[in-house]
Structure formats: C-alpha cells, structure tokens
Amino acid sequence: MNWRYPSRFLAGLLLQILFSIASFSSGHLVLAFFGALLTAASLGLLPGLCAALLAGGAFSCLMESERFFMLPVDFLFVFVMAYAVRHGLFGSWRRVLLLGLGVGFVGGLFAFGLGSCLEFPLADSIMKGTWLTEGMPEAHVQLLLSGVQHAVDVGISFLLIEGLRRLVPSFFLLEIATVSKEGVRRFPIRVKLLVILSVVMVLTASLLFFCVRGVYRQQIIETYGAVARNFVEAASLLVDERELPVILAPGGSETDAYRELFSNMRAFYARSDDIIRYMNLYAVGTQDGRGYAMTICDPSDTGYRYGRTFWMDEDAYYDEIGKQMLDPKDNRMIGPVVSRGYWGWLMTIYKPLYDPDGKKVAFIGIDLDMTRAMQEMRVLDTKMLSIEFIIFSLLLALMYRIITQQVIDPVRRLQEMLGYFREHREKSPAEEAPTSGDEFEVLAHDITEVQDIILQDSEQLQEYLDLIQRMALRDELTGVQNHTAYENKLSELTAVITAGTAEFAILMADMNGLKFVNDVYGHEKGDIALRAMSRALCDIFKHSPVYRIGGDEFVVVLTGRDYENRDALLGELAPYERVRNRAAAEPWTEVAMAVGCSVYDPLQDRDYQDVFNRADETMYENKRRIKKEAGEI
Q1: Model-level pTM?
Q2: Half-sphere exposure of 95 (CA within 13 A, CB side)
C-alpha cells in the first residue's frame, strides 16, 4: 500500500487542527469550519449549510461566544466549496490553493470588518472622517492580518479536501453536479431557489437584527444616561459657586476651598463602586481665538494635575462638543455621549458650572465605564444572531422542502413523462402525472391530451407513410413490386455478395403472346393476361419477392426456403412454359411464358449482373425452343 497520500493527508489535518486552535480567538472551530466544507463537498450545498449552521450557530448560542461573526463567512465558504466541486473547479493543486487563499482572504476581511463595525470604531471613524487617525492604522493592520490568517486557514482546508477527494474518490460520489445529455452542466432550479431564499433570509435577518439591536442598545444607553445624569447632578453639588472664582484663579489649588473640593470629589468617586471611570472639573475659555480646557480637579488617579491645558481643536472628540462648551448662550448639559478610544468604552456627560455673575466658566464631567454594558450587548448580539440564524435556516429548509414537493417534484415528473414519451413515443405506464390540484395538474392534463393527439396523429401518419411506401414500391397493374423496389433489392444483394454471405438464385420470366392479345383483343385483355401471369408466379414462389421490371418481363429473387426448393418450384412452373393458344375462346386467360433460372456461384460470379445475365440468356434460349417446338419459328 502506498502511504504517501494518507501520510500527507494526516499531516495536513494535524496542521489544520493546530492552526485552528492557534486562531481560536477569531472563532474558527474545526467542527464548524472544516466539517461544514467537507459536508458541502461530499453531500451537497444544503447539508453543508446545515452543518455550518448547527456547529457555528449552536456553539455561539450555547457557549455565548463570538462565533456568530464567522457564520455568514462560513456560509460563503460552503457556497464556494459546493460550487467548485459541482463545476469541476478542483483538479489541480495550484487551482485549489489559489481558490482557497482568495476566498479566505476576502472572508477574513469581511469577518473582521463586520465585527469591528458592530463594535463601532470603524463606523464611527468613517463618520467622523478620522479613518487614518486615532489608532486606525493599527486597525488596518489587524484587518490585513485577519485576511491573511483566514486565507491560510481556508487554503489548508481546501487542500485537505482535495487530498481526501483523491485519496477516497468514492466519498464524493454524492456531489450535486448534474450534466445534461448534451454534455452541458446545468444549474438546477433547486439550487437557484436555495440561493434566492438564502439571500432573502440573510437580508431579512440582518434588517431584523439591526432594528431590534438599535432598540435595546438605545434602552441600555438611556439607562446608563439616566445614571450618568444623576451622578453629574450630585457631583455638581460638591462645587460651591461662590468659591469657584477663587479655585479657578492662579494658585487656586493652594486654597482651603480647593482642598475641600478635592477631598469631597475623591470621596464621591470612591463611593461610586467603580461605575465612574473618570471624573474631572475643567475650566474652559478661549485664547488667541482657540478654545482650550484646563484641568482643575481630577480625583480619578489619572495623573492629570491642576493647570493641565489642552486645545480642543487638537482632539477630534472635542471638535464637536467644544463649540457647545464655548458658547456662552448654550446652557445645556452636554451628553451623554458614548465613545470608544484609548480609554475603552465610556459614556461621558458634562454639566456647565457658573460663577456668581452667571457666567459659564467650568464643566464638571463624569465618564461611566461602559465595558460591562457593551459586553452584555455583545452577548445579546450573539444570542440574537445565533437564534435568528437557526430560526431562519429552519424556515429556509422548510420552504425549500415545500418548494421541492410543490414545484420541483411535479416539474421532475413532467420531465420524466415527456422524456419517456420522447424516447418510446408512448405515454409512461409507470410515472403518474402530478395530482396537486394546482397549475401543475392542469399542465399535466394538457400534456396528456397533447400526447394522445400526437399518438393518434402519429398512428395515422404512419399508416399514410406505409400506404405511400407500398404505392411507391408496388406495380399498380399487377400488385407485385416495381422496378424501384427491384433496384433496392439489387443494393441488398450487392451488400451480401461483398460480405461473402450471398445465397440466392435469379428467375427471369417473359410472357409469350402479349402482343397478339393486345393487337387482337385490346390492351384491357393484355392487362388481364399480365395479372394472371404475376398471380401464378406469386402462388408458386410464396417466400420470394416478385418484380415487374418491364412491360411483360418479371424477375423473381429466390432466397431462403424457395432457394432450397428451387428445383421443385421450377417443376411446378413447367406447365406454364408454352406458347399462347391463339385459337382458344379466351386466350388472355392463359398463362404462357418462358423462364430462365441462374444460381449465384461465388467462384464465377463477380456481382449480381453476372447471375442476371445467365438467367436472361437461359430465358431467351427457352423462349426460342418453345416457339420452335410450337412451329412458330
């Protein structure tokens, strides 16, 4: 046994498992990915989709993993695998590898992009126009690495399946490839319907997911927003507006009022049970036409000291809300705003503070930690997507089953009926017409009626053709075969002579006294004489064809039983070898002829003409002998 291919396959399978384990964080499971591809390659598209759904979707739902991000990509890989096997795209290792790397790279980009968009950094950065800032180059690198990783993974899987296909060809006998009688590969209607239904299901599920997701995301944000507003309202009470000008003045951090404020804010922050991630008191203003914010108090251990200043136009986050902060007429609370950046997921809210003159001089800000909320949202996303995929896939399978029963099967039965009719020119005795009570039953009834009409017309047409053939090959006067039929017989005899299997004899018969009957009694009596002679030849040579090749000349080709009994039959014909009795009352009723017979001899006869010439010479010799004996010569 040659262990080269099995050893290579086992080595590749081990590499696939190790790579899948190494990339487990991206959601690749051997059962969900490689198993689905193998199922699609061996059993077809629908089983492969079911395998991907059950493995990926069920694991996502039960284990609360992020596997659902890869589920649409798995479906893409399954479609590509089934299409490649069905259309014979596999066959060369290079083609398989390129196909796997290509579809894997595209799938990896799609999967990472989908996950990132659901987590908002890519989508938010595009909307804000910061695609190339705020850490987005790192996201681009991650996107590229994800594509490369998936390309390697899918490439290995495709190579493994190609190796298994070559190792165990019988394992792939159930592939869904269909080839027409003309050799053209067809795209079955069930696959077309499956693709259309899948696209509709995916679009519907996606629309439903984002609608429902928007609802509960808004509820979560509103809940956290209410908490943030309560916190910022409570924190604002810690600041005494009368002491605010002193705190904001240069050296304000050295005052007792500031120390008391810092202590109170520090205690408030400590009692928040880590819900508050950051807490800050900012002074805002303009300098040289640019807006700035200066840290006044930071009890959240970030290291930002009193007097730390940053320009708002240098931070994309403050680019929009900075305008509201600097607007003296805008006294609204800013936020809550959900963002994700260097500090993670945060919900930020700012409340303006005023000096005793009512001038907006500072903001107190609260940043709530949204990490746990976003994780809970991702868990809800996972569960909802997985449940949606399971439900919609079951609906897809149910609709596919219904369409198969109500549409595809009736069409198949109609095709079988027409195919049987086309092949056998009769209605199928085994296949019953659809009785579904819909248009297919009406169509089957119409097809049956058309078949009856065609069969009836075919029978009549065949009768007409037989009649025409008989008329074309029969002598109208005598009823024996005519000269055209005789020519056809010569072609048959030439073929058997060439094949070396010829065994026949030629009998020439010429009527005596036909001119006398025509001249004395008329041509009508001559016709009676011809019919009588042809009837006599047919009665004696019952198993051989009789031909009228001239006015009063007949040829009989003796074959089979007549050939074997030719001597006895010639004896029966001897009484008719005579001259016509011109003194008889009705001389046209007599049968008078001269005959000559010759047997095919392969040693001396080159073709049929040699046999015919000998028979013709014998016939004329007998004719002269008969006339001489009768005294007519």
Answers
A1: 0.46
A2: 9
